[in-house]
Design goal:
Helix content: 25-40%
Number of strands: 16
Largest sheet: 9 strands, mixed
Shape: elongated
Strand content: 15-25%
Number of helices: 15
């Protein structure tokens, strides 16, 4: 029997507010344990939560960017469960009336092409704290700095069928949230994390199978690997004539397998009820329109503009708009240039190769977009050739010097004097009569031989265009 996977994703995105969702404590990551706390977020008796307006604005932006319907009235509920890092004994979340519903994202995959993935809802909630397990002793410590940090949970419809589709959906959602500047997207710090619900059903059957939930997946590759493993595991269980158990499982990246964590809770297990300390949240049309005015250009629109305005290929535009930092770098670097395609080539090859080798993001590039633009302008104007440009770039990475200074220090200015180059070309031709005869007999590949000789004599500084014209004329 063939089985079809049914996958739904729940993404928790931490909002980039300076303070927590219901109190004035800082949300800064990395502060000493339990210093970003107060009586409100630590659940002391008698305290009252006050909703952070900026968190609501960010949630509205996320809803607009994912084509969701924004509910003009939403409510906060108490989600009751016990855990050592949940000081109140409940989490303030939205259940019955979320801030936004019924959205979608368009994704593209190599196998299945363009697809629409529905978004069931976006709701706001507070984060829990963090348990730190002591490897030396049998004890755990609680850090409540993260308690009360504002989150939005974005719940997809069960429209995803493969691990590749799940990865494409997550990457697009991640890029959108960073473009609209509501989440920093740092997966290592937990700012963007994912739970995946996976079930199998016989192909053609409408009813869903019994699902397992994979918790707190914090990288795109781990999500894809975990889903692939879980599909294989559930397939094996069903083919053995057994039933899949509804449970929560964890992904072990060291062993490349999922392990059981606990039985899966249902909504009634949390005993949701309206939070009596918070009034309904009213979002009127004026508020939505004001947020719309602040919305930036989204990745898909930027990609289309790059193709239209800069004459880039679909592939180039897709790569350059994969992050807002990279897109901004390209536009700044290519601004003064006539040939935007050359800027794209340099960025996608030379720049990205350097970043990958150093394991850093473009926001930490030792070469700024303005400095890179100066380098590309020198190449475009013929001051230096591409070979010299690579030498200059490597020096910029190490020293952060201005490219013009490096060109002067290393004597890399391109030789464009036609008369001087013509004499050099004639000398090369006279010194290699056998190769000239072979070239004239039809062995045209020898042209690169002559080009190499010229470049060697000029230490790579000769203008290739002028040398090419002179060689063709003389040969």
């Amino acid at each position: 029997m063939q089985f079809e996977p049914v996958i739904g994703l729940e993404v928790h995105a931490q909002l980039k507010t300076k303070t927590k969702i219901f109190c004035g404590c800082s949300t800064k990551f990395g502060n000493p344990p339990n210093t970003n706390t107060c009586p409100v977020c630590t659940g002391m008796p008698g305290v009252l939560p006050v909703l952070n307006k900026q968190a609501v604005t960010f949630a509205i932006k996320a809803a607009l960017a994912t084509n969701c319907k924004i509910n003009q009235e939403s409510r906060f509920d108490r989600k009751n469960y016990f855990y050592p890092d949940l000081p109140k004994g409940y989490q303030i979340s939205q259940y019955a009336a979320p801030i936004a519903e019924h959205g979608f994202l368009e994704i593209e995959t190599q196998i299945n092409g363009n697809q629409t993935i529905g978004i069931t809802r976006i709701h706001m909630e507070e984060d829990a704290g963090k348990l730190i397990h002591d490897p030396a002793r049998a004890r755990s410590m609680v850090d409540l700095n993260r308690t009360g940090v504002p989150l939005i949970e974005i719940v997809s419809e069960p429209d995803i069928r493969t691990a590749q589709e799940a990865g494409a959906y997550l990457r697009k959602l991640h890029a959108i949230l960073k473009y609209i500047d509501v989440c920093d997207g740092n997966m290592e710090e937990g700012s963007f994390r994912c739970d995946a619900n996976i079930s199998l059903r016989p192909r053609g059957q409408k009813e869903f199978g019994i699902r397992s939930e994979l918790k707190n997946l914090n990288s795109f590759k781990n999500v894809e690997k975990a889903i692939l493993y879980e599909i294989e595991r559930q397939t094996y269980v069903l083919e053995e004539g057994k039933q899949v158990i509804q449970e929560t499982r964890l992904w072990d990246p060291l062993r490349n397998k999922t392990t059981s964590m606990r039985g899966k809770e249902e909504a009634h297990d949390y005993r949701y009820f309206p939070d009596p300390d918070l009034v309904p949240l009213i979002v009127d049309d004026h508020w939505i329109q004001e947020v719309k005015k602040t919305m930036p250009e989204l990745p898909h629109a930027k990609q289309s503009r790059f193709i239209q305005d800069y004459k880039l290929s679909d592939y180039d535009a897709k790569v350059l708009t994969s992050s807002i930092e990279l897109a901004d770098f390209f536009e700044t670097a290519s601004g003064p240039l006539k040939d935007k395609k050359q800027a794209a080539n340099w960025i996608m090859s030379t720049l990205l190769a350097m970043l990958n080798s150093k394991g850093i993001s473009i926001s930490h590039s030792p070469v700024t977009a303005i400095a890179f633009s100066k380098l590309l302008t020198l190449v475009e104007n013929g001051k230096i050739n591409a070979t010299a440009g690579k030498i200059v770039f490597d020096e910029m990475v190490e020293t952060k010097k201005d490219p013009e200074i490096i060109v002067k220090e290393k004597g890399l200015e391109q030789v464009s004097d036609s008369s001087g180059l013509e004499i050099m070309v004639e000398n090369i031709i006279n010194e290699n009569p056998n190769e000239v005869a072979a070239y004239r007999d039809g062995k045209t590949k020898l042209f690169s031989f002559f080009m190499g000789k010229i470049m060697k004599k000029t230490q790579g500084k000769a203008d290739p265009k002028i040398v090419t014209l002179l060689l063709k004329s003389k040969l």
